[in-house]
């Protein structure tokens, strides 16, 4: 049956080409959009994901890393004194308003951490070193922000409101998921640059003592008023969910993915149906020769699966090329194995769904039609 | 052997048409029988029922001694087991080569066989790798005969197999059918062409849905 399915397809190359182009376009559209979504949400939680701490302590009701209500730095001592906590550090996230060389103003996200430990800081350096941040007023920028910062690099100086700042390093992987570039600084520098957080910490991150149970330690920490405690994975997921659901990004991208699915469904469905109607006599012949209804359905499904696999490969290759072309743009596109597998499953579902009309038509074919 | 008892079929519609009215016949293994009659006499309807492609309203059918169970699901297996078909319009699968067309009944039956030997037996061994679009009408019909032979079906049913062929190719087809019968198969062919009577062991004539 596979050979017959294959031969039926390649026998009409023009029609196969149309079907494959339709599926490939649909896969390309769905994959790029899903890749942007995954890249966007991964970027949103990248700092959390790469932070070496086990627990994130924020004030109650803080939905994500950008919108944490600050709390007193004195709370750090309370966290450090909690049984099961090996170490704790304060982090800060704030916004600065940069004046670029040509006079343009631009908001930037600033993550402040302790350069001595590196916890909460950049995780891959391209130029410079985290230790360089110990000097006040120094910053590390992500390489993806070059365009947003008009090409500023190591050694360049600019202004953050009325404070001088100097770029001392370039990191990789902290791609901005908004229009604001991401900068890293020491906790003190970031706090001074902050418009909001004077003498207040944004977060406290804690590392568990060997053998300590994360759930138990989190429960102890929650006894402090205003503390909300999350594991790193939970807080990262909260951050991703916030951006996906509260901003409309998830719905917007979801609609585009659905549109791609429908486009593929219609093109493949129409092409397969036209091909099936042309071959009704052959299906009647197969039935007269003893093929069962299940057998002819398998034939159609095999054709659909071949189109799905080839279309997925072609669309996926196109999406990979597009991803490469977008690498230096301020947009994160991320494909991973689960996404590619999910897209293959969606493509298969799309093509099998598209074959339904053909299946219904073939099931109704009377084998006696061979004599007409 | 194929034996029909009182087979009847009425096509329901705005006006009911009794296509076959209580036909009984028997064709033995090793016989080539012709079913002849004018257009609309019910030949093809009767052939469809004898080949278990069309379910009769009444009557019984025994093939190789086995009573046919007309309850739907069993029919494809019965067709695979007992019948090889040859059609006026050949009904070869356009995307497959001659060899692959001959293999189809083998694949459906899950049996092994030698499609090349079947093609060679009808003088088509040299055209095995050609697709139907590259074959003449006579060649297509010989491939169809090879397909009917390949799965070693005991009963061969033909519907106007020479209808689209010239005399020379028609003779070749009937010579092949005669050969199949001589080798023990039951062969029943619908035709309206009296030239082929000389190849037959038995001739059934139909008119208005009945054997005359």
Task: Explain what you see.
- The complex is a heterodimer of chains A (372) and B (212).
- Chain A has twelve helices and twelve strands.
- Chain A has 372 residues and is α+β, with helices and mostly antiparallel strands.
- Chain A folds into two domains: 2-43 and 248-371, no CATH class; 70-225, no CATH class.
- Chain A is elongated, with a radius of gyration of 28 Å.
- In chain B, the strands form two sheets. In chain B, strands 6-7-8-3-9-10 form a six-stranded mixed sheet. In chain B, strands 2-1-4-5 form a four-stranded antiparallel sheet, with helices on one face.
- By secondary structure, chain B is an alpha/beta fold.
- Chain B contains six helices and ten strands; from the N terminus they run E-E-E-H-E-E-H-E-H-H-H-E-H-E-E-E.
- The interface between A and B is medium-sized, with 24 and 28 residues.
Strand percentage of chain B lies at 25-35%
Shape of chain B: globular
Strand-pairing-aware structural class of chain B: alpha/beta
Order of helices and strands of chain A: HHHEEHEEEEEEEHEEHEHHHHHH
Provide the helix percentage of chain B. Answer: 25-40%
Main sheet of chain A?
Answer: 6 strands, mixed, barrel
Q: What's the multimeric state?
A: heterodimer
Mean pLDDT of chain B: 91
Total number of beta strands of chain A:
12
Give the overall average pLDDT of chain A: 87
Any key phrases for this structure?
heterodimer; A: 372 residues; alpha+beta; 2 domains; two-stranded antiparallel sheet; 12 helices; 12 strands; B: 212 residues; alpha/beta; 10 strands; 26% strand
Give a quick summary of the entry.
Chain A is 49% helix and 19% strand. Chain A has 372 residues and is of the alpha+beta class. The longest helix of chain B has 16 residues, at 167-182.
């Amino acid at each position: 049956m596979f050979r017959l399915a294959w031969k039926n397809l390649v026998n009409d190359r023009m029609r196969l080409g149309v079907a494959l182009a339709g599926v490939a376009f649909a896969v390309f559209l769905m994959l790029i959009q899903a890749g942007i979504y995954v890249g966007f949400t991964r970027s949103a939680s990248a700092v959390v994901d790469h932070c070496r701490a086990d627990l994130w302590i924020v004030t109650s009701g803080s939905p994500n890393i950008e919108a944490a209500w600050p709390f007193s730095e004195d709370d750090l001592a309370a966290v450090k004194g909690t049984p099961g906590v090996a170490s704790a550090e304060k982090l800060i996230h704030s916004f600065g308003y940069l004046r670029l060389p040509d006079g343009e103003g631009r908001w930037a996200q600033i993550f402040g951490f302790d350069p001595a430990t590196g916890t909460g800081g950049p995780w891959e350096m391209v130029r410079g070193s985290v230790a360089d941040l110990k000097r006040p007023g120094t910053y590390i920028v992500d390489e993806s922000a070059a365009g947003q910062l008009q090409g500023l690099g190591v050694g360049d100086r600019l202004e953050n409101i009325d404070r001088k700042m100097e770029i001392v390093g370039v990191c990789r992987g902290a791609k901005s998921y908004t229009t604001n570039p991401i900068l890293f600084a020491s906790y003190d520098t970031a706090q001074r640059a902050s418009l909001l957080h004077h003498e207040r910490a944004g977060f406290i991150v804690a590392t568990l003592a060997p053998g300590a149970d994360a759930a138990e330690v989190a429960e102890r920490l929650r006894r402090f008023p205003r503390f909300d405690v999350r594991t790193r994975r939970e807080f990262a997921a909260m951050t991703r969910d916030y951006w996906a659901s509260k901003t409309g990004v998830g719905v917007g991208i979801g609609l585009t993915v659905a549109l791609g699915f429908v486009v593929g469904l219609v093109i493949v469905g129409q092409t397969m149906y036209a091909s099936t109607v042309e071959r009704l006599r052959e299906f009647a012949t197969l039935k007269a020769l003893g093929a069962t209804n299940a057998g002819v359905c398998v034939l159609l499904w095999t054709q659909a699966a071949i189109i799905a696999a080839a279309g997925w490969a072609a669309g996926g290759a196109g999406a990979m090329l597009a991803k490469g072309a977008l690498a230096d743009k301020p947009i994160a596109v991320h494909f991973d194995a689960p996404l590619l597998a999910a897209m293959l499953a969606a493509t298969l579902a799309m093509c099998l769904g598209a074959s339904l009309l053909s299946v219904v038509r073939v099931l109704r074919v009377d084998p006696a039609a061979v004599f007409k | 052997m194929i034996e029909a008892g009182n087979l009847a079929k009425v096509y329901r519609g705005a006006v009911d048409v009794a296509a076959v009215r209580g036909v009984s016949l028997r064709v033995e293994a090793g016989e080539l029988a012709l079913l002849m009659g004018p257009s609309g006499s019910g030949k093809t309807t009767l052939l469809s029922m004898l080949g278990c492609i069309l379910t009769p309203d009444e009557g019984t059918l025994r093939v190789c001694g086995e009573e046919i169970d007309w309850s739907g699901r069993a029919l494809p297996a019965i067709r695979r087991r007992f019948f090889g078909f040859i059609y006026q319009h050949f009904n070869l699968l356009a995307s497959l080569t001659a060899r692959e067309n001959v293999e189809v009944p083998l694949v459906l039956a899950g049996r092994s066989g030698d499609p090349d030997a079947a093609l060679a037996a009808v003088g088509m061994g040299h055209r095995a790798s050609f697709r139907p679009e590259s074959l003449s009408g006579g060649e297509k019909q010989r491939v169809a005969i090879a397909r009917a032979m390949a799965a070693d079906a005991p009963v061969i049913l033909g519907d106007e197999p020479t209808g689209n062929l010239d005399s020379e190719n028609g003779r070749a087809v009937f010579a092949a059918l005669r050969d199949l019968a001589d080798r023990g198969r039951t062969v029943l062919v619908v035709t309206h062409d009296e030239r082929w009577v000389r190849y037959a062991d038995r001739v059934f004539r139909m008119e208005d849905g009945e054997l005359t």
